[in-house]
Amino acid sequence: MQTPHCRTPNLLLILLGPVMLAVGRAAMKSQVLYELEREPAYWDAQARATLDAALKLRPREHQAKNIILFLGDGMGVSTVSAARILRGQMEGGSGEETMLAMDTFPYVALSKTYSVDKQVADSASTATAYHCGVKANAKTVGLSANAVAYECNTTFGNEVYSVLRRAKAQGKSVGVVTTTRVQHASPAAAYAHSVSRSWYSDADLPSSARQQGCVDIATQLVTNVDIDVILGGGRMYMTPKGTPDPEYPTSNSRKGDRKDKRNLIDVWLKAKPNKKSHYVWHRKEFDEINIKATDRLMGLFEPKDMRFEVFRNSTRDPSIVEMTEKAIQILSKNPKGYFLFVEDEYYINDPLIENLIKLVVITIMKNYGHGRIDHGHHDGIAKLALTEAVMFDQAIQRAAQLTRESDTLTVVTADHSHVFTFGGNTPRGNPIFGLAPKKADDKMPFTSILYANGPGYVHINGTRGNITMVDYYDEEYMQQAAVPLDAETHGGEDVAIYAKGPMAHLFHGVKEQNYVAHVMAYAACLKPYTNCPPHPHSHTSSGCVNTTSSLLFGLLSLLWLLR
């Protein structure tokens, strides 16, 4: 570090203080930030503030009352980095200096995502790992690796149990919020045991599996464990075959799917007659739910998966943040605490930012239907994946506003990555969906974002397509790929784990993915752990720790304002 300016950092921060108060979240112009960044004093002040806060950071070594697990399906590190830049650019900055809500979590680790039988895993085996604490085989949920995909008779005796189920057994309330169908692999591993992640309803089971006693995932949703809050999509798997969908009554493809003629919504409603249970499928009913008068809530807002936030009909379907908020409000009434799993779709809880997003992603896409980072990447359409990642981060931020770090362990992670990358020696502030500055060896331009494989492989007469002939900023633009595939594939590299709250410091270094479940169970003193962290003292040091946490990210506040 250079000595001539060693006193300047404090002066710089003093001078910047009134400016930060004045500009607020509107952010300084990029040129102002550029001028600051040219000075070594800026970087010294930034690093010193971060170092000082890090030295004062103390772990919360007491038991967690509540646990929230956020799962960004397919949200690899490259996706997080690109989403960070996108969010900053949506707000008028160059983007790179932006801080996401998850970036402010004090503890970070890496998760190894391989499964027992696959180097590059799927969402089912990974869900079993982070929910149940054991690695498993692809295509299976809630089962050990002794179970074989699609072989029903290998189910029995190989069941493994989730943190959600263990939390319920100890008197906590539990909930699932997802913008997929609630029977999707990621939430399913929290409550079901199936050799096929695709056995959503009994109509999906082969006759041999039914004869051997296997049960579809939707049935297990309402019979295996009493889940207090269930919010997402997946109506059609819950009602008898031919039942008209309430939202799309004339659509044959959205009618009820069940062969056994059971109405599983009614099964769930009647399961706990002593509790006040409600089912909703429409935004109006959802908004009218009286939290104080509701013990259990099921909301199924689409026949299958819910839609992207930017394509959501806001008069009919709630957003992911609204669902998360309602879930926390209901679950937090339990004095023993709760476990909440939140997956995927992403929401901007700021009208200005929301409008900016909708300018970027014009809502004209035709029947796309899948509101997830994962599906955006599989289709090779980076804009869908990244805008969803930005929205997901806003959901994390909203949850932070509704909870206390002193009693709630919040974990944010991904199940796997994707073969998505961005590069090309781009200059600072380059539009994230823009071109690299130089042409490739074939004398044609290329976008910074590319995929290693997928549907974006298009060659004409043996030559890569000239992207200047298309609008590569369009919301449906499919980035180029190196290898032709109908769908882009998952990536096999590690994914990040972000954590804050009680025992969050146990997330550090490089860990196996199943470690996530064990930390959550230990933090909340759930089976198999009995030698648990102590309960927090009646007069906790949370205020002091919060101050430390704030100091750690005091610098981030500066960057937040300069975005």
UniProtKB/TrEMBL annotation:
Mg(2+) binds at H184, S186, E343. InterPro entries: Alkaline_phosphatase, Alkaline_phosphatase_AS, Alkaline_phosphatase_core_sf. Residues 238-258 are annotated as: Disordered. PROSITE patterns: ALKALINE_PHOSPHATASE. Zn(2+) binds at D73, D374, H378, D415, H416, H490. Binds 2 Zn(2+) ions. Binds 1 Mg(2+) ion. Residues 1-26 form the signal peptide. It is found in: Cell membrane. The active site is at S123 (phosphoserine intermediate). It holds the Pfam family Alk_phosphatase. It catalyses: a phosphate monoester + H2O = an alcohol + phosphate. Keywords: Glycoprotein, GPI-anchor, Hydrolase, Lipoprotein, Magnesium, Membrane, Metal-binding, Signal, Zinc. One of its GO terms (molecular function) is metal ion binding. It is an enzyme of class 3 (hydrolase). Its EC number is 3.1.3.1. Its cofactor is Zn(2+); Mg(2+). SMART domains: alkPPc (SM00098). It is a lipid-anchor; GPI-anchor. Its main location: membrane. One of its GO terms (cellular component) is plasma membrane. Belongs to the alkaline phosphatase family. This is Alkaline phosphatase.
